[in-house]
Amino acid sequence: MESTPLLELDDNVLEIVVKLLNYSSMDLFSEDARKIRQWMIKQPHFPEVMVDKKIKNFLILNKGSVEKSKEKIENYYTVRSQLPEIFDNIHPKLSYMETVKASIYFIPLPKLTNEMYRILFYKVRDPHLTENFEPVHGIRLLVNIQEIRMTEDITYGDVFILDGKNTPLRSILKVTPMVLYKALNVIYTQVFSQRLKAVYIINAPPYAEKLFNAFKSLLKPKLIERIHFCEDSHILTEKFGKEIIPADYGGSEKSLEVLQEMLYQKFKESEDYFTQLDKLRINDDLKPRRLINDEMFGLSGNFKKLEID
To answer: Which residues, in sequence order, are CB contacts of 11 under 8 Å at separation 6+?
Structure first.
């Protein structure tokens, strides 16, 4: 059976991105990736040596820094034991994922932008089902999407489009400061090193900007500058081009419903891969130097005890 073509990549994308990272040649980029692979081989506590595509994505996400890539790869494995509430019961085949699928659209769009960024689109699919949808389910879905992208995409930068239509206030209020911190700072930044370039919020409910202002203290100034509230969804086709935006929003790309089916078909085809990911845990007994939580997450003490007023 052929694999579902979820993400589209032209043959020259990697070469373009490598040049954007100021490498003078593909050979130098490949040599840095080789150094990381050799380092991984020498880490007795690691559960595996990553495939080259995944190593190269870590190198891209860390702007060509070998040392930062090593640090994030260490985080990638360590966090799986540190945050069991996210990484236990994360497999896409679990039954609650059917509720997630019915409740929301959260999809990487097939085509890259001109800047080589990947757009991820979020929208509530059925507001009546969101009562059973917990924010941790959304974080797990994000992790699973990122796992697919790390082996099948070139992850130079991300743009989020959030459609607030049909989003109940009760769903927004479930996103506590702790949930936001785990999703953005720990999982998205410290583990996957993803580079968030912009967030476009369309059809925002009246309370959205007030809630955004309440959460501002948790966000870095650079991120705040990249969040845009849009009065008209037509800005999406003007900004990114009709060929990228789904048909639901005036574009020529497949509809959100079709793209949703493609994503979950990809999850189904990748069940063996996710089963392997479930087993990825570091061996603390073999670890040369034990990372404590505040080193990894920028916190003092136990991560679960963080309190934010």
So the answer is: none
What the block records as the tokens of 104 is 């929301």
263, 149 Cβ separation under 8 angstroms: no
AA identity, residue 204: A
52-110 pLDDT, tens digit per residue, is 999 999 999 999 999 999 999 999 999 888 888 889 999 999 999 999 999 999 999 99
Tokens 């916190």 correspond to what residue? 299
Rounded CA separation 109/298 (Å): 32
pTM attached to this predicted model? 0.89
Q: Provide the 8-state DSSP code for 201.
A: E
Residues 255 and 203: their CA atoms lie apart, in Å, by: 18
Instruction: Provide the token pair at 166.
Output: 């049909």
Q: What is the DSSP string of 46-114?
A: -S----HHHHHHHHHHTTT-HHHHHHHHHHHHHHHHH-HHHHTT--TTSTHHHHHHHHEEEEE-SS--T
